[in-house]
Amino acid sequence: MSGQFGRKTRQWLAEDEANTLILVLDEAHMYRGTSGAEVALLIRRLQARLGITRDRLRCILTSASLGAEDDNSAAIEFAEQLTGKLKKRSFKLIKGVKEKRKPGRIGTTEEAYAFALLDSEQFTNRIHQYDTLRSNLQAVAKRLGWGDVPHNLDELPSYLYKSLDGFGPLELIIEQISGNAKKFSDIAKLVFPSVDMKMAQKATSHLLMLANAAKDNERVLLPVRIHLFFKGVSGIYVCTNPKCEEKRVKGNDSILGKMYDSPKLQCTCSKEARVYELLTHRKCGTAFIRGYISKKDGNYLWAEKGKGIVGEELTEIHLLVEPPHEKIQKGERSVRPVWLDIRTGYLMKSPPEDPEGYLKLYLPHDEANKNKKKKANNYIPTMSVLYEKSAGNDYGLKNKR
């Protein structure tokens, strides 16, 4: 409330005691906890800046999920705590009227398989490929006993509304989620219990997709929203076994194994390979693993920073996973290969007699960079150039949202 707008507002309020400021807070249930306390303080600060009492601030709070349905006092108490208690007036709770709908029912196996036929990618891009989608939708509609799918895309929303309004499985979903958030897997299991979970989730997802697109005079049949909760990761950690059986995509050649979102000593693969943090170069994307070695001998790669076996300091190193460019193999900035025992974590400077169970890595040659006065004294080869070690990028979100 600074500048000309603030000055004129304060002047208008000062002219007449009957003048009141209206403040609308949509989705009021979101203002709880720490964020609620911040908003509450901002409202009180606004009053102070305008020089008005709480009674001259008219607050309207809207919410579809604020307290239990039969508990009026809880909603009013929440509003008073958030905006301040009134002396001359009071809050009035205005409730919506529940729409009367047809009773729901459990979906049949045939209905589950029918909805599973829907091509979700084509449906998402229906503006650009409606002719192809129509053929797919026609097959779904035929199995469900619906009428012919319209040739015009503009008529599809009303067609879906007419077909799905009062449809038993959808009505069951509406009964379950109205004013009450539910896990998607629980909804799928409830609506299509006669099929396996994978099929039930696919059918339910497609049913929700169709219901959300169904409209009657711009009124959406099922205006749902999904809450996605994301947890920041401390980093990405990877199994050092290229033949790891636990990785998501099996059978494909890869340079490393399964990835984890938290530190782990060993992978659950048959080799019980060591797990290290994965780094990628922020410019070219080349992969490294981060480890720690003793300054004294450097024959063991620790996964975490700390003290060695006898308490010696450990030095962080970034080991190149991919073979370096041939131009890097020559010259004073050359790198040297090392072989990591994926089961124990021991490093070998010469090739093992049996390479099975070892991962070939590359690290900066100690002598090559020994006398170089650079901002960073370790160089990592990627592609046809050398990048300083400090350019390695980890995957920790570090409190980012």
Explain what you see:
The chain has 401 residues and is of the alpha+beta class. It folds into three domains: 3-83, no CATH class; 109-220, no CATH class; 237-393, no CATH class. The chain has helices at residues 3-15, 33-50, 72-83, 109-116, 120-124, 130-144, 156-164, 168-177, 184-191, 197-213, and strands at 21-25, 57-61, 215-216, 219-220, 237-239, 259-260, 275-281, 287-294, 314-320, 335-341, 347-348, 358-364, 379-382, 385-388, 392-393. Helix 4 (109-116) runs antiparallel to helix 6 (130-144). The longest helix has 18 residues, at 33-50. The relative contact order is 0.07.
A few lines on this structure:
With 401 residues, this protein is of the alpha+beta class.
Radius of gyration: 32 Å
Number of strands: 15
Mean pLDDT: 85
Strand proportion, as a percent range, falls in: 15-25%
Architecture blueprint of SSEs:
Elements: H1 3-15, E1 21-25, H2 33-50, E2 57-61, H3 72-83, H4 109-116, H5 120-124, H6 130-144, H7 156-164, H8 168-177, H9 184-191, H10 197-213, E3 215-216, E4 219-220, E5 237-239, E6 259-260, E7 275-281, E8 287-294, E9 314-320, E10 335-341, E11 347-348, E12 358-364, E13 379-382, E14 385-388, E15 392-393
Helix pairs in contact: 4-6, 4-10, 9-10
